[in-house]
Design a protein that fits this description.
- The structure is a single chain.
- By secondary structure, the protein is of the alpha/beta class.
- The protein folds into two domains: 75 residues, Orthogonal Bundle (434 Repressor (Amino-terminal Domain)); 193 residues, Endonuclease, Chain A, CATH 3.30.870.
- The chain has twelve helices and six strands.
- It has a six-stranded mixed β-sheet, with helices on both faces.
- The termini are far apart.
- 29% of the residues are buried.
- InterPro entries: Cro/C1-type_HTH, DUF5753, Lambda_DNA-bd_dom_sf.
- GO terms for molecular function: DNA binding.
- Pfam families: DUF5753, HTH_31.
Length: 286
Amino acid sequence: MAMTPTVRLKFLSIYMREARLKAGVTTKEVAKLLGRDTTRVAKFERGKEGLTPGDAKMLLDHYDVHSEQEKAEIVELARTRSQRGRWIGHRAVIPTEQRAFYDFETDANLIQHYGNELVPGLLQTEDYIRALLIDEPRVDPGSIDDVVAMRLERQRLLYRAEAAEAAFVLSESCLRRKIGGNKIMHEQMQHLAMLARRPNAQIQVLPFNSSGRASTFGFTMLRIPAPTASAPPLDMVYVENLHDADYLDDLDAVADYAALWRNLTASARSPESSRRFILEVARGYA
């Protein structure tokens, strides 16, 4: 299957770490074999650094991996883990710390997002995006067109042939916080109501008067299919702040966020009730 370089690197790190642990080999031994220190090995096993095909094959042989097909698939991941020229043109405006997320999102077949202040990027209209960027101090006014183009390009994953399943829980504040004036907000609400009719999209609103659990922070959960049918998918959570972002794939952390997601969807209005509520809010902006 076609995958972005970031996702290939992540699966490469997962498979190599699993093979090492199964073989009972220490990171110190790996570092000695590769001529690196253990810090570099740790970065590789977190998907932060790559591994050459030759080194991957050498380690797999050392780990006594017998399946030639498995070794070939892992070595192929090492061979295709990079792609030159991906972040050029209008894509170059994406901050380095966000690029990995864009790649993970591109390859996901399930996206679950909780938004607590702003309409999520995948659901934003062009005018809403531009209104946001006008007041964004980190965006050069001369690059706004490129940022808009990149965000609109990103939204194609909801419309492509094998579109991702996408579910959103939006705090009512996402609908009420006025970005760019009534006209822009009216069009944005209409756009949300339209997207809510797509078979691969589900939008729920968590109203202010909900007695259920809310969250003070937004997050995104992704499920990414494995490169081979026999392997499990990768479940991960993405959280960000002003200067940094974190990608969580620890099983316990993912389980905690999954439980939070279940609480949020249970506390929110149903998809159809949410759609009617969004249209009601839209009329208030008309």
